[in-house]
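Exercise 7 asks you to align residues with tokens for two separate proteins.
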Amino acid sequence: MIKTAQAIKATVGSKMSAAGLAYLGKLVKIAPLGFAVDIGTYKGASALMMHKADPQRDILTIDDYTEGVDAKKRLELKIDPLETIRRMHSNGIYAVRGKSDVIPGLVIYERIALVFIDADHHGDAVRRDILAWRDLVIPGGIMAYDDYGSQRWPDVKPVVDELMDDWQRLGCQGSVAAFRRCG
């Protein structure tokens, strides 16, 4: 998995560590059958990693393409979202441009096996994403978060810990923390 993660970082680019990407690949392989959802597409590295790890799994990736530079500032992202969306579709990944806390209504009847949240890292946005998606994850499914414990994004860990305290903690590798839904 680490070599695949390094190759994706080298070709696509990603702010995520290779260790975090590799862990995401492992998580998608152990998730039950169903959709994997990537919230915060950026350049598409995490969605591509999930696809490489499990090519038969349907992947939905969502981004509104606004980017925060740190916990206090926001700015428009300087990438071409349409190019990223085309790259995702050419790899058999469903890419949607939109708000991550609004899109769940489109997939409410699908089996959601894994949700990876790496979007707006401000506390209120992390909370909205978790609350929008956690009840859609099937029993045994996984929710994972990037920048968990990051000094740059201090809101992520406390919000995740608060809202995921009734889920089984699977661990943390790189900057990715994962939790499994029980029962």
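Second protein for Exercise 7:
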Amino acid sequence: MESRRIHRRIERTPEEQDELRRIRDDYQSRRPSMEELLASGDVTEFVPLGEYLSLRSTMLALREQRERRGLTVTNVAERSGMNESRIAELESGVQTNPTVDALCRYAAAVGARITWLVESVEER
């Protein structure tokens, strides 16, 4: 099944647009590191891309399992005890730091389980 991205137009005032442009230009010119962003207070948490992509891959597999079983988001919400918006956030990637409990409850609701794998990474 092919997913379709939905774009919602965000209405911003000219002042808000100017501020966003200023911030974007500043970050593009300085290219701050992850540590600098966290220290500045501009960012409160940071999810490394590899971890995010791993989570997205897991959620894609769980969503495909849900669809193969003919379950709706409402079905999964009822089975897992989570609300529909939480299920939608997990599936869409909006929730970038879900709890282990939420992932396991979702998996159980679609008749799956999550297994963990530990891999060594090279020191930088």
